[in-house]
Amino acid sequence: MRKPRDLNFMARPAPAPEPEKAATPTTAARPTSATAARPAPGRAAAMEDESETKRVIRRPGQPLKIIAAPKTPKSPGADRSNRGRLTIANATSGEDERTRSVASFRRRQQRMSGHRHVEQKEKLSRDVVIPETITIQELANRMSERAVDVIRLLMKQGQIHKITDVIDSDTAQLIAEELGHTVRRVAESDVEEGLTSDEPDLEEDLDPRPPVVTIMGHVDHGKTSLLDAIRKANVVEGEAGGITQHIGAYQVAAPSGDLVTFIDTPGHAAFTSMRARGAKVTDIVVIVVAADDGVMPQTIEAIQHAKAANVPMIIAVNKIDKPDAKPERVRTELLQHDIQVESMGGETLEFEVSAKTGQGLPDLLEGIQIQAEIMNLRANEKRDGEGTVIEAQLDRGRGPVATVLVQRGTLFTGDIVVAGAEWGKVRALIDDQGEHVQYAGPSVPVEVLGFNGTPDAGDRVIVVPSEARAREVTEYRARLKRERAAARSGGANRSLVDMMREMKEGAGRKELPVVIKGDVQGSVEAISGALEKLGNDEVGARILLAGVGGITESDITLAQASKAFVIGFNVRAHKEAREAAERNGVDIRYYNIIYDLVDDIKATLSGMLPPTLREERLGEAVIQEVFEVSKVGKVAGCRVMDGIVERGAHVRLIRDSVVIHEGKLKTLKRFKDDAKEVTSGQECGMAFENFENMRAGDTIECYRVEEIRRTL
């Protein structure tokens, strides 16, 4: 029998270990099994190759196989050179497990604690400017702090706020000082400081400027016609009804060649504020009085405006070409208002003129020039421009357009200007001839394009250095404007007692709600003022909205919600607005003459007035006997003592001189027939509406009630 072959390890002989390495714990002290220490014959034995770390295994009848030995993970603190031989026991031992490093442990602790180590930045203390009111976001921006930190501090004080809420200056100061900042309190109105300079200009900077002349007077006395004759233009045809309803500003050349700026104001009673504005911006006032009509109410009003503005007056007696002209009558009537003309020994210049023939116009212009020379009108052209808005309108193609009279300095294209609660960058300047100009000096009227909204007529126009400054000023003014409007209307500050009292007082007053849209600001002002004066304690007009521009869909929506009607003065409704008005049944009324508008509203308000009731006595009857009639009820048999008794007339039943019933006469019979009326001395039967408690001896008084329509 053949003896089986021994299985031997086919590997290179391992070098003998060094003495110090043989005694290391990794080799000598490590426990091994007998099978691993002495491989028995017929079993595979494993040996480690020190350089390759591989096992070479050979089985009977199989080729040579090389298998890589598993690597042992390195344990902290163990030296690679001290590992010794890798055996199966070493490979399967669990003592040399891999552990975390100290840095890894530290990172884990930082994650568990929820924060990382951040270097503390140096706290900066800032000088914070705090106005009377400020939003939380703006306060945080000025302190360079997070808004959430400000809200957190307010919550600690028991106040819950949003980032857009407004807080007062005291609260803002507490927050800023809590965060370590220095506070400087300012008033909200301080934003307007420095807008205008009241310092007088240097004498060497002053140059002569054209005089600003305002034409004033009663309606239809020829103011615009006189200005047309001076300008040699025809403006009257462009005005509806031949009356001026806008303030116009023009420059003309006098016979001497010097320029004169004219401002034409309306004469109608509704345009009082426009005349007052004209007087405030003017140097000289020319009061036009018709020679055939004399001094009229608006003439007196114009004189009062001129006196209030403390400007010199020149009297122009117009229409002297008419046969019934009486200039002497005009001079005499002016004496009643403390105006004494030169021809009567006074100091006020007067000229007899005719706008139709041109008579006296050169003398009038010469007189204006003489008056201007006496006044020595001069201005500084080198400073920033300042002026006044004479008129403003919303042009559909050009946007907001303001007619501005420059009074100081020079206004250039590209300047950033502020006018009331509106601001803008001047896109274009257009003179009175319709030509584009690059700049406008003192006493020059120009149309200014570029405002972001329509300013109010009479607002001061000021050039500012930057857009930020313009926004700051206009935001303050807009907020002030809203607060004033809220205060006038009662606003949200009204108490419940105030509202109940107003409801009680106004319970019997009927109001006509209207929405007003006009072409220019002055016309809207005039219409609003005229409508507010209409009415009495029983009826009146309530203006829901008064604005400049065409009628929009939002105007129709407002009118529908308030059951109002819309007034369009020299404007028309947009297509969408017209369709909405037809769909919702909103009435739109168009006007181009203020007389017609005021008369229509006055007639409408008069129709809302309850009529006056007037009694007319018809006659008197005495009940002689009371009968019970089937299907009719009680019928009084009466004798007419005085006058007549009519069926359907009002009656009073009087018993012992006391009125016990008032009503209508339902039935009137003469014998068995129905009668329309019964005269004195005749007998009749009467039945009353809703009353049957009559007795013999009662007196019946018959009368007719007549309704008389009232007017404002």
Biggest pleated sheet: 6 strands, mixed
The CATH class of the largest domain is Alpha Beta
Helix content range of the residues, please?
25-40%
Question: Could you say what the CATH topology of the largest domain is called?
Answer: Rossmann fold
Structural class: alpha+beta
The named CATH superfamily of the largest domain: P-loop containing nucleotide triphosphate hydrolases
CATH architecture of the largest domain: 3-Layer(aba) Sandwich
Number of E strands: 35
Q: What's the overall geometry?
A: flat
Tell me the number of helical segments per DSSP (H or I, 4 or more residues long): 18
Provide the number of structural domains.
Answer: 6
- Poorly predicted residue ranges: 1-54, 75-81
End-to-end distance, in Å?
151 Å
Structure write-up:
Residues 22-45 have a biased composition (Low complexity). With 712 residues, the chain is an alpha+beta fold. It folds into six domains: 1-72 and 86-92, no CATH class; 127-186, Arc Repressor Mutant, subunit A, CATH 1.10.10; 210-376, P-loop containing nucleotide triphosphate hydrolases (Rossmann fold, 3-Layer(aba) Sandwich), CATH 3.40.50; 386-485, Translation factors (Elongation Factor Tu (Ef-tu), domain 3), CATH 2.40.30; 508-608, Rossmann fold (3-Layer(aba) Sandwich), CATH 3.40.50.10050; 612-708, Beta Barrel (Elongation Factor Tu (Ef-tu), domain 3). Strands 9-10-8-11-12-13 form a six-stranded mixed beta sheet, sandwiched between helices. A six-stranded antiparallel β-barrel has the order 15-16-22-19-18-23. It has a six-stranded antiparallel beta barrel with strand order 28-29-34-31-30-35. A hairpin with a 3-residue loop joins strand 28 and strand 29. Helix 9 (272-280) packs parallel to helix 10 and helix 16 (553-562) runs parallel beside helix 17. The longest helix has 22 residues, at 467-488. The radius of gyration is 51 Å and the shape is flat.
